[in-house]
Amino acid sequence: MAADRAAPSENAGRPVPTAQDLALALGRDSPIYQRTFTQLLELFRQAQGTPGVDLRYREWAVYLSAAVPSVECSEELFVNHTYLALVARLVARYFLSPGAPVSGAEELAHIIDGDYFREQGIDNYIEDDFFTWLLIPDIVASGESGLKTMGWLANALASYDFSRTPPGLLTGLYHQLTGGPPNGPSPGDIHTPYWLAEYVLQEELGLGTDGEQSVLDPCCGPGTFLAAAVRLHAERLAGEGQDDFDSLLHILDRVMGMDIHPLAVTVARTNYLLSLGSLVQGVHVPVLLPVYLSGPIATARNPGSSVLSNGGPEPVYTFHTETREEMFQVPDSVASNLESLDWLFARLPNYLRGAETRGSKGDDEAAQAVLNAYYNYLVAPKLRTPIPEPLSRFAADTMVATAAKLINRYLQGAGLFWPFILKNLPASVYMARRKFDLVVSNLCQPVTAEASGSGKEDRLGPTAAASGGESGREAEISPGDDPAGDQWSEYTALYLNDAGRTALIMPFDAQASGGSGAVTGYKSQATPLYQRADKVVDLSGVDGLSSPPYCVLIGNKSLASLQPASTTTLKGTAPSDDARWEQAREHVTIVDEGPLTLPD
User: Fold this and answer.
1) If you average pLDDT over every residue of the chain, what do you get?
2) Domain spans, the chain
3) Which residue has the higher pLDDT, 237 or 444?
């Protein structure tokens, strides 16, 4: 259970930072950044050649390159991302325990590896991910310089009051540290101001009035849409006088996201957590943060996935290492259940450590003893847990085969990195089977919908099966020369329920605008993208938004709208990025332009 929230007096005199404040205080030009970055880079270069460090760097590069194909992966960029990942952890720590100083090296280590948050009842937030390389035993043994750097950063952040955080607190810093050459644009959320996310959800999709709507952002970036959806749900539930425990469970079940950008997932999870506010700052129900390092199965945007196997009693999903030299399999009964993924993989570290402890008996004997114990656990009822039913023998055999490979990786120095990966990648199976009322995202960095294999069955077979056997054939989409259209089709086919609505932000030149604005044509050889929407929101009239100008396309699951799309134009001057829509109304007006007009 979480600790009780600190009394206001404990934060007396400490400023509550805005997103701009944090970007200024911790950004590239700040003394805090320059000192921390220099120390981390020196430490990383000293640690090169250490298996656990090299593994995390290689996998980070694989995922980042899939998320941003134009990116130039480098040591400096990896350390840059590590810096913000550490900042996010510390912000979350001070948010959950405001006013309480970090107690020392042990707590710092638990903040880095996530144990601190798990002790607070927050699961699937921080794990042994890409950025825990500071805790590799060889680095710690070298003098704990990584923990000393973390401690200095913790002291620098202790001067702020994070107990009352504004929306999207880390988004400005995220864009500053990831955007621009040579890093490439930020995936999924190049620049979605918080007020714009609220406008789309509230005004166009009605989230503020329909509290039952579920929301998925399948390319969530730093989590702007997720943070806005969480706050809109929380405010409505509070206004209705709902119990905090029930409100928290309601939100966690209805607002979900995923991305394959390693840093984006960390920041999105943090923004999601901060948006929950007082619901998690006191005693609360266990929290499983529903934001995952995942993407559509077997596509170019999910670098660790392979094809589905239907040869056994239930489907099996295969995931591979960065060199494809080793495959890990997860049965459908686990992959399609988020609680099973979390519960079973979160308990694997105990078995991996057990194999290491028993190593004196010989690796094979030690591993087999541990695997026998794990198998018995999987096939036994688990009363008073989120997954009380035992796995089938087939599913248990599949999980044990994967556990055997994970033991070998663990003994080779990989730490708990691979359980973290396998706990996340299959999440998109659940997302595709669940189906959502609203699918929202930002496609200002379109990624080509290239198949991981040669045919569309290889590309979307797993998600089609996850959608319900033959009925899932609707999810088969042929990749073409229309990346934005491919993603629109993919997101609506895979994740949207039949009565749902999609709203995607995309570059202005990837659609045809209407009204009094300039008409910019975009047509594919198949179905023009503007014919798949029933509304276009033109944002080119808002001064101060990032370039190039962009728009919002809104539609339903059908591939073609039966009526000409209507056009709404937003005009005015953009307020600060972290402003609420209610505040933005003072600066931005809504103009209905009528039916969409197209070029000849």
Assistant:
1) 81
2) 8-178+185-293, 313-424, 430-595
3) 237
